Amino acid sequence: MNPNHRIIDTLTHIADSYRSQGVPYKYKAYRTAIDAIRSLGTQITDVSQISSLPGIGKAMVDKVREILATGALQQEKDVMSDPITQAIQTFTSIHGIGPVLAKKLVHENALRTIDDLEASSHLLPPQARLGLKYAKDTALRVPYDEIEDHLTYLKKVVAKLVDPMLQICVCGSHRRGGATSGDIDVLITHPSSSSDSGSEYVFLHVIVGVLRDVGYIIDVLAEGTSKFMGYSRLNPSLPVRRLDMRWMPYDVFFPALLYFTGSDMFNITMRVEALRRGYSLNEYGLYEIPGYEHLHHAPAKGAEGPPAGAAKGKRVFVDSEKAIFDLVGMTYVQPPQRSK
Ligand code: DCP
Ligand code: MG
Ligand code: MN
């Protein structure tokens, strides 16, 4: 366990409340500070150990000082004991309910609990009604070992009933080594598939069909050619889990693997670095931005790349995650170090 887990947990509770209230800049500020404290490695006994870390401002130093001095943070106690804040957090954890709808349900309709929502489900859009159906189960974290069991099961079923050459891996917080995850993020490819042909996109549809037939997938939120979102269950004694699946052709597998492994904050950092070197990076690939010199050295301090919306250029093919780090000028780090 991290030597500063009490500080990390306390600040995480506040960060999560800002996210559910729809205040992303506060959420990001807390996440940055939490990541800096998490990677410190030594136990904080005095705020001088963190006051000069990047991403930790005076307000954050004051909060850590209060935790060190009193063993707790009054702001956290207020957040955790406020029924309105807690209700908004419960509601936004349900698929299909964002901060705006959650606040309306709490303030205008005086709802507080999942049972309240069930009694007033006519107020919800259809997606949220489906989310509500599994809300009590999906509020539970998925243990690391259970996700490994899902992977073993998926590999076996897909190899037997679809194609033995299909390659399946779990990404998201699980690949970053999380002891528990919020959902299960599965990435699938096939060595003979290519982004030129496109015909292989039928694979995901076939896989979803098979997984529904065997009773693993029990409900669908959204299904497209390369993305699936829904609910699955390994066996009836286990809770229903949120399942995200993505299909990517083999030649663009690594940008997808990198994106889907995250974290979301790490992806933002990496996209900014890519732009500074004249590349645009997204979940579908790495592209040279036309009309921009592709730097093979660090750009001048303060130099900016082309705007984020610049036209996509030639796709750059890569055969590993490390090749992408190299091209955008970042030192390769393993998934557990990609929390920032
Ligand atoms: N992702 C992203 N930006 C987003 C959402 C997702 O870059 N707005 C990427 C990075 C995430 C990955 O997709 O790590 C999977 O998304 P999840 O929402 O499943 O997030 P995690 O798996 O990281 O965390 P959790 O345990 O909450 O599922
Ligand atoms: Mg996830
Ligand atoms: Mn997910």
UniProtKB/TrEMBL annotation:
Keywords: DNA damage, DNA repair, DNA replication, DNA synthesis, DNA-directed DNA polymerase, Nucleotidyltransferase, Nucleus, Transferase
Chief place where the protein resides: nucleus
Subcellular location: Nucleus
Regions annotated as coiled coil: none
InterPro entries to which the protein is assigned, alphabetical: DNA-dir_DNA_pol_X, DNA_pol_B_palm_palm, DNA_pol_lambd_fingers_domain, DNA_pol_lamdba_lyase_dom_sf, DNA_Pol_thumb_sf, DNA_pol_X, DNA_pol_X_beta-like, HHH_MUS81
Pfam families found in the cross-reference section: DNA_pol_B_palm (PF14792), DNA_pol_B_thumb (PF14791), DNA_pol_lambd_f (PF10391), HHH_8 (PF14716)
Gene3D superfamilies, per the entry: 5' to 3' exonuclease, C-terminal subdomain (1.10.150.20), Beta Polymerase, domain 2 (3.30.460.10), DNA polymerase beta, N-terminal domain-like (1.10.150.110), DNA polymerase, thumb domain (3.30.210.10)
TM stretches of this protein: none
First-tier enzyme category under EC: transferase
Gene Ontology MF terms in the entry: DNA binding; DNA-directed DNA polymerase activity; metal ion binding
Gene Ontology terms: biological process: double-strand break repair via nonhomologous end joining
Residue stretches making up the DNA-directed DNA polymerase X domain: 2-339
Purpose of the protein: DNA polymerase that functions in several pathways of DNA repair. Involved in base excision repair (BER) responsible for repair of lesions that give rise to abasic (AP) sites in DNA. Also contributes to DNA double-strand break repair by non-homologous end joining and homologous recombination. Has both template-dependent and template-independent (terminal transferase) DNA polymerase activities. Has also a 5'-deoxyribose-5-phosphate lyase (dRP lyase) activity.
Family per similarity comment: Belongs to the DNA polymerase type-X family.
Protein name, per record: DNA polymerase
